[in-house]
Design a protein that fits this description.
The protein has helices at residues 3-27, 32-39, 51-62, 68-80, 91-96, 102-113, 129-141, 146-156, 161-170, 177-197. By secondary structure, it is an all-alpha fold.
Amino acid sequence: MPAADAIIENEQRYRASAYALLAALLRAAPDQALLEHVSKLSPSAEVEPDALAEAMAQLAAAAPTFDEDQLEDEYNNLFIGIGKGEIVPYLSWYLTGFLMEQPLSDLRDDLAALGFERSENTHEPEDHISAIFEVFSVMISDASSFTDQQRFFEKHMKPWLQRFFTDLEKARSADFFKPVARFGAAFIELEQDYLSMRS
């Protein structure tokens, strides 16, 4: 495999794994296995330290200091609460102030066009942040065209993700999820630059 192709393949593997990690961290309270995985994250020694590398290091350092019970409480306070958590992790909410609105319908149409089907075991609407990250990870792994990736990112991700991560970092109940938010924000900023350069 030519060196340039190997570099591109590594880039795509990294992107897909970062989205999959964020999906796992935001889907439910992280369990011990996920915490152990996160604690082993380390920035590449081959690149200059940047905001993403610093955020990754902070997240890895935080992971061993929490246990599952703490994170269950934190996750519930942040995202579930009594009636509603501090943070509402849905595309529709961030774009309209309401759940189950037009942005969800638009997302469902685009997911169907891309060949994604809703699992019968899925209870959350498709516009939950973890579901969107999961879909995008699969799109990258399956080598969806960059045109499709750019369109999906611009329409369903770019308009709200930085606001979501800013809100999450500032949330009163956030402790472990502060470094999660910093990592997510730094990664999405990098993705915006990456996808715009490929256009």
